[in-house]
Amino acid sequence: MTASKRKLRAITGFLLSSALLLASSVWPYRDTAVAAVSAEEATTLQSNLKQKLGARSESFSVVLKGKLATADVTKAFDNVFAADDYLKYAIRSYRYTVSTNGTTSTLSVNMKYWENAEQTAYVNTRSKQILASIVSKSMNAHQKVKAIHDWVLLHVAYDRSLVRHSAYDALKNGLTVCQGYASLTYRLLTDAGIPARIVEGTVSTGAHTWNLVKLDGVWYQLDTTFDDPVPDVKGRTTYGYYLVTDSALKKDHTWKSVYPQAVTSYKNTLDALMAKDKTRTAFYEDLREDMGLDYLDPSRTVSTVKEIAAKIRAAAAAGQTTAKMRYTSEAKPDLDALLKLMPELSSVSYTMESLAGGEDGDSMLTVKFKLRQ
Q: If DSSP states are collapsed to H, E and C, what string results for the chain?
């Protein structure tokens, strides 16, 4: 093909938000005489993308020998994202075009980020500072995960305006949506030496992100967003979505992409740890209590108003004003019926939370009450 007869081809693509969906179209003209980019050039492309995205470059070009196809670009981006979950979810959107003159191809990319380079650097610095304050050399991985989970819940609140999406927002403003929760949790876990992933799926309110955590070679699901009360309750942490299995999380989470499977009950893991690691018995016992695992025992389980009343009376006899129990009924507790059954109550209220390790429909029921004087 002579230079005068060469035609210009263009490929365009677009990626939007955390779903990372790539749509592309190819100019209908094909020149079979132009060789596709080589494996070496494909490696060069991927290396350039990794460097530019890592530096949070907003506009850049890469020139390669041969004809660059949509599949080449898609593969390169996918490989870069697969190697760095944090980077993947720091990207807000991108557009690219490919032009080919018959000998070389030029990929031109325009990026938008949830975090710029300076903001990501701030996250990296703060992550190390936070870990220095909450993690010690004597801790094992299980203690580190608990410390990280609790720090995130105690210092971050869900952004109900839905405008803050990054780990930077979580640290700088104390507000972010699920993507920021998952990104910050991922940053802290990986900086602490704990393998983690960011998982993307859906819940009843729409798109959602959370984490997978690997402990002693076993993966568990972890959702710090769902464990943080909305609206925010200062000083409060919950554990309904703490190191749970796929089957437990599927009660209200769905996902399509392939991730490591989480099939091991953390209750069984804790039982094994308590048997062999006596130096940390107090930590494991406290964690079992926090997760509500001890409430799985039938003696701490209720399903009727009459059984709830019995637990309240037992708590009152012990001088307490709060009664906690595992609740297995699908119906919400009937407070009117409870007040009729217990005329000695002057007031009563309750909260219900997911119960880690429980069956479908199980809840941790916490009843606060006052007795008539």
A: CCHHHCCCEEEEEEEECCCCEEEEEECCCCCCCCCECCHHHHHHHHHHHHHHHHCCCCEEEEEEECECCHHHHHHHHHHHHHHCHHHHCCEEEEEEEEEECCCEEEEEEEEEECCCHHHHHHHHHHHHHHHHHHCCCCCCHHHHHHHHHHHHHHHCEECCCCCCCCHHHHHHCCEECHHHHHHHHHHHHHHCCCCEEEEEEEECCEEEEEEEEEECCEEEEECHHHHCCCCCCCCCCCCCCCCECHHHHCCCCECCCCCCCCCCCHHHHHHHHHHHCHHHHHHHHHHHHHHCHHHHCHHHEECCHHHHHHHHHHHHHCCCCEEEEEECCCCCCCHHHHHHHCCCEEEEEEEEEECCCCCCCCEEEEEEEEECC
CATH 3.10.620-classified regions of the chain: 117-291
| Model pLDDT for residues 251-306, shown as the tens digit of each residue | 899 999 999 999 999 999 999 999 999 999 999 999 999 998 989 989 999 999 99
CATH top class, domain 117-291: alpha beta
Instruction: Quote the CA–CA distance of 70 and 36 in Å, as a whole number.
Output: 11
What would the pLDDT profile of 72-83 be if each residue is shown by its tens digit? 999 999 999 999
CB 312 within 8 A of CB 323: yes
Q: Please name the residue that has the structure tokens 């991927």.
A: 46
Phi and psi at residue 33, in whole multiples of 5°?
-75, -20
pTM of the predicted model as reported, rounded to 2 decimal places: 0.84
